[in-house]
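Data deposition worksheet. Section B asks for the primary sequence of the deposited chain exactly as it was used as input, without tags or linkers unless they were present during the calculation. Section C holds the resulting structure in token form. Section D is free text for depositor observations; keep each observation to a single sentence. Incomplete worksheets are returned to the depositor.
Section A, Depositor: J.P.
Section B:
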Amino acid sequence: MKKLFLLLKQGNISALIASTVNAAIAILKGIAYVLTGNVAMFAETMHSIGDSANQFFVFIGSALSKKSPTKRFPNGFGRLVNLVLLGAVLVVGIMAYETILEGYHHILHPVESTGFLIIVSVLVISIILEALVLFKAMKETLHEVGVEAKGFEIIPKSFVNVNKAKAATRLVFLEDIVATGGGLLALIAVVISQYTSFHHAEGIASIIIGLLMFYVVGKTFLDNAAGVLGEADENMQNKIGTVVLEDPDVIDVPDITVLKEGDEFHVELTVEVDPTISIAAADDIKDRLVKKIMKENGVGDVVVEFDENDNISSWDKRGIGKDKLKKK
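Section C:
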């Protein structure tokens, strides 16, 4: 039990906060739907339930992915978070289907709902809470990618860097954008239905919210399917290759692989060195390179192999390797 508690402490905090807030919002919306029968409120209730369940799975998956390797699973559990997220999207998919179906029925048979003040109050409260959670996810995104920002500049910078954040944070970010936007859409539909005879607006809003939820399902599925298979990160490869070539004893980097496994990077590289150096010198070079690479954000483990200098530059991303070859 103690080990489980320690693992949970390492889970994605943004996901846990978002799950808790969305659970409270779902209860509020559910009560409002029961009291008023408003179809847009039904859509928002389904949306919040789906988000809360999904984000709770994200928190659990991100925590369990930190579990240390075992004899049975020597490569660790880094990709477990991707598997959990693939399962979690099924929950959102079911909720999205029910939301669209309910909206379709309302368009065919529009019914004027009651309790306008209750609906508006609940939606305004939920929009504010979801916006706060979204802002927290934005700050978490920038923290993970190592970008500093204050005040309103957090918003544009988080959008630019969100694809570099951890899978769990990306999902929370995306879901909260859709949740906040869906709340605003539902609020507009309710106002239109209240002050005009166009009662179909609530059904249309419900369908749009359902489609936005399906977008989250599709985006999350594609991102995490790649993570389960083991997706190479070219940007990190180039960054680490450049760092390695700065070492005075490294002549070239003929091979480098950086795989994203859950929230961490697994790095394997081959470096060319002077073939006359001793084993002790090679060991010092290895320790030095591992220490440098491990300083990069998100790197979990590093494997370094050596090869003798073949006087051919394999590093074609930069000119550093060629310059070193000429000098040596």
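Section D:
The two ends are 57 Å apart (CA to CA).
The first strand starts at residue 231 and ends at 232.
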